[in-house]
Amino acid sequence: MNSELILNRAYPVLPVIVIEELSQAVPLAQALSAGGIHVFEVTLRTACALEAIQEIKAAMPDCITGAGTVTSPDQIDAVLKAGADFAVSPGATPALLKESNKQNLSLIPGVSTPSDVIQAIEHGYNLLKLFPAEQSVGVSMLKALAGPFPDIRFCPTGGIGLHNAKDYLSLSNVVAIGGSWVCPGNLVKEGRWDEITQLAGEAVDALKKT
Ligand code: 3PG
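YS: structure for the whole thing
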């Protein structure tokens, strides 16, 4: 899938999802979708993550469902078999970049330095995750990267919420922001889907015009 079809300003928020119980997967995706978020990053941090992707894909074929926290080239095969539309990694090793290209998986690799960006460009990537955004480099880094890398687009993630999302989305090289604040673990665990729909709706309303 073309990276511009995965993330663009029509969908400014990429929810970083952790599914502890498979039964949470579809209700959570439905709750986010009811609030206006239709692109999901299901992180491979739990045992049921791949099955969760499969179930969300089957139940919500019109949404775009990706796998997050991909840290090894060995995971690419499994992610594709689960039916993921794309993958996200916190990093960008040559092995990961090459394997995703080889298997034709749309990967959003994670970067935090200019050298990371150059390495990703060398492998043909132009949509990158800036990670961890707030904890390390933030808005000022993205502004600085726009000079030498005018064609590269970013999805910063890490420490972003409604309080600072607009600072990122006001930058011309930011297409979307990632974050877990729209699907907090306690609400997911307690099945408080209406509250998640509300958080998603608030985020979409606040950010769609940035
Ligand atoms: C990620 O996994 O991409 C980030 O850890 C999400 O960061 P956040 O929880 O601060 O939004």
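YS: worth flagging: The first helix runs from residue 3 to 6.
IM: good catch. Also The chain is about 45% helix and 15% strand.
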